[in-house]
Amino acid sequence: MLKTVIIEDEPHILEMMRYYLNQLDHYNIVGMYTDSTKALKEIPLLHPDVLFIDIEMPGINGMELAGKIKNEANQIVFTTAYSQYAVEAFRVEASDYLLKPVTLEDLNELAPRLTTRKQQQLQALSSMIPLVTIKCFGSFQVINESNKLVKWPTKKTEELFAYLLTKKEEIISKWELADVLWPDKDGERAVHNVHNTIYRMKKTLNEYNLPISIHSMNQAYYLEVEETANVDLYEFEQLSTGNKLSIEVSERLKEIYQGGLFQNKDYPWSALITRTYEMTHEKCVEILLKYYKEIDQEKMKLLELSI
């Protein structure tokens, strides 16, 4: 299915597009917007396969919007009542162009072309170097570019990495690390453990060629994670911090949340933040259940089964 976003400033046309697309098995709507500025902010977080964009919109018009997000979405389909926009539309590398009023038949005929292009893009991506994946929700896993699961030399090395990961480039003193990870050891012994474990972590990061660095300064450390690493925890934080939990954002958060933070580990220090993420997930489920109850009974049943 094609993950689909609709951007249309007229609510009745937006609703009509939603109705038509929901009749077709090819499309899965992940976002609907009447406000192009809000769409510009949230679209990179939704990872859509196709965007239907109205050209004539106040504020950021469809052409401008496409120019800003064309690197964030696979395919752009413009919708407009004016045929004179066609040439300009393809100048911004639009995948297709539909004249209003858009019909169910138009969308059905378009679907195979969009699906074929998606498959071609996936094949092209598969030949590129894959991203490093760091999975924090559910089982804790780090997978390198060669698709190898990182095996940490000790449990404490893995735990220290997890702790620094949650701090996201914060500078953490060696004393804090000693207190958190070795609370039962005296100060000198605990700090000695910190130094040894940091050394093991650096060695492991290099061994697996991970785009992650551990830096030291003034008897403190911080973790630097490059953008080529896909960290589910960071995406969850980015979506849930400072954003209203819209339907689109809630669906993405629900997709990311595959279980509690470091669910298969026993990290006492993670209890509070684990509960914070759990509460956000529960709120998302509540929002989605209410929404699906009103518009889509089948999705509601699937959501209930997945809880």
From TrEMBL:
GO terms for cellular component: cytosol; protein-DNA complex. Keywords: Cytoplasm, DNA-binding, Phosphoprotein, Transcription, Transcription regulation, Two-component regulatory system. GO terms for molecular function: phosphorelay response regulator activity; transcription cis-regulatory region binding. GO terms for biological process: regulation of DNA-templated transcription. Coiled coil: none annotated. The modification 4-aspartylphosphate is found at D54. Residues 3-115 form the Response regulatory domain. Transmembrane segments: none annotated. Its main location: cytoplasm. It is found in: Cytoplasm. This is Response regulatory domain-containing protein. It comes from Bacillus weihaiensis.
